[in-house]
């Protein structure tokens, strides 16, 4: 639910008027003793557009996590799936054998600190050549909901086991690179040439959308010109065959001019994306994260709030329609 996305911007607006965004977290309240909410199975076939992947979607039963949000799902080499998520303690994790039933792992992966890490959330991970992993995450200097009220920056940490992380410092400084103090909800991928691209929510030019930055070493990033996707937020990207498929959320119809929900867009180069196509449309949804099961099947995790209940993580499974 994976502190969102403009999670903060609209997520806290939704809960205070969740307050999870990928989102959302600005303030991921800690949850306990919440019953699992049964979910009806629904099949949604994406709009058929020439040259664009088409999916048949099924909503998975029940919840993945009941007391957190802003998910990031990471497939492990042993076939298990680790889901990183946020609540008031920081960034935590849970493990699964099947990608559906998760058991929470003890401890905190990334704890809040001071200054611009007063709140930490929105994790994303890349695998490194030496077997370690690097997590990028959002740090914020307050729990306030939006640009102009809080400053969001992107940091990184490194781990050899996916559980114990050592903080590495600031990666994207939203105060100096043109993001107007708002670089949030990162999603990182390694490109075929070994460079790392981070997609993230930006307020550059006082616009509302998804921008990107690129790095040759995973530490020093240069902002790429323009917006990858206007208006939508909470990016999550997966490579399917030769296409980059980006999932994003519409959390405020004033910006997106689209019903609230989760959408996907397609690109041949990871920079210029097609028009959004709905996965499903629903209020109080944010921060998608995508797990590639095989070349034809993906599972999209996302944060959800159903007042008066607190944030949780649900998922949809999609199969490419031939």
SSE order, one letter for each helix or strand: HEEEEEEEEEEEEEEEEEHEEEEE
Low-confidence stretches: 1-50
Cα-atom radius of gyration: 17 Å
- Per DSSP E runs of 2 or more residues, the count of β-strands stands at 22
Overall geometry: globular
Q: Can you tell me the number of structural domains?
A: 1
* CATH fold topology: Neuraminidase
Q: What is the first-to-last residue Cα distance?
A: 31 Å
What structural class do you assign from the helix and strand content?
mainly beta
> What CATH first level would be assigned?
Mainly Beta
Percent helix range? under 10%
Strand content: over 45%
Question: How are the strands of the biggest sheet laid out side by side?
Answer: 1-2-22-21-20
Give the averaged pLDDT, no decimals.
Answer: 85
Largest sheet: 5 strands, antiparallel
Q: What is the annotated CATH architecture?
A: 6 Propeller
Count every helix, treating DSSP H or I runs of 4 or more residues as helices.
2
Description:
- The chain is mainly β and 322 residues long.
- The protein has a single domain (7-320), classed as Neuraminidase.
- Helix content is 4%, strand content 45%.
- The protein has helices spanning 7-15, 253-256, and strands at residues 43-45, 55-59, 69-75, 81-87, 90-96, 102-104, 119-127, 133-140, 152-159, 166-172, 183-190, 196-202, 209-215, 222-223, 229-230, 233-240, 243-250, 261-267, 277-281, 285-294, 297-304, 312-320.
- A 5-stranded antiparallel β-sheet has the order 1-2-22-21-20, with no helix packed on it. Strands 11, 12, 13, 14 and 15 form a 5-stranded antiparallel β-sheet that branches. A 4-stranded antiparallel β-sheet has the order 3-4-5-6, with no helix packed on it.
- A hairpin with a 6-residue loop joins strand 13 (209-215) and strand 14 (222-223).
- The longest helix is centred in the first third of the chain and has 9 residues, at 7-15.
- The relative contact order is 0.21.
């Amino acid at each position: 639910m994976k502190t969102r996305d403009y999670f903060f911007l609209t997520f806290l607006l939704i809960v205070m008027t969740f307050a999870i965004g990928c989102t959302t977290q600005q303030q991921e309240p800690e949850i306990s003793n919440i019953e699992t909410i049964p979910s009806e199975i629904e099949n949604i076939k994406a709009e058929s557009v020439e040259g664009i992947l088409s999916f048949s979607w099924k909503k998975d039963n029940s919840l993945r996590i009941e007391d957190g949000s802003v998910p990031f799902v990471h497939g492990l080499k042993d076939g298990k799936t680790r889901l990183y998520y946020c609540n008031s303690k920081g960034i935590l994790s849970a493990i699964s054998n099947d990608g559906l039933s998760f058991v929470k792992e003890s401890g905190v992966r990334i704890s809040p600190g001071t200054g611009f890490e007063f709140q930490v959330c929105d994790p994303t991970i890349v695998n490194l050549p030496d077997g370690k992993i690097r997590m990028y995450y959002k740090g914020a200097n307050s729990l306030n909901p939006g640009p102009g009220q809080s400053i969001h920056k992107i940091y990184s940490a490194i781990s050899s086991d996916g559980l114990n992380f050592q903080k590495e410092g600031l990666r994207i400084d939203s105060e100096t690179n043109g993001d107007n103090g708002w670089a949030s909800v990162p999603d990182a991928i390694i490109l075929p040439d070994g460079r790392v691209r981070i997609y993230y929510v930006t307020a550059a030019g006082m616009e509302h959308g998804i921008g990107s930055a690129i790095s040759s070493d995973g530490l020093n990033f240069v902002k790429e010109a323009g917006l990858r996707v206007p208006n939508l937020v909470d990016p999550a990207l997966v490579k399917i065959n030769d296409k980059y498929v980006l999932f994003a959320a519409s959390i405020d119809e004033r910006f997106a001019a689209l019903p609230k929900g989760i959408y996907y867009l397609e690109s041949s180069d990871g920079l210029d994306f097609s028009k959004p196509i709905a996965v499903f449309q629903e209020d109080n949804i944010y921060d998608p994260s995508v797990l590639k099961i095989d070349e034809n099947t993906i599972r999209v995790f996302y944060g959800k709030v159903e007042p008066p209940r607190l944030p949780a993580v649900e998922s949809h499974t999609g199969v490419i329609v031939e």
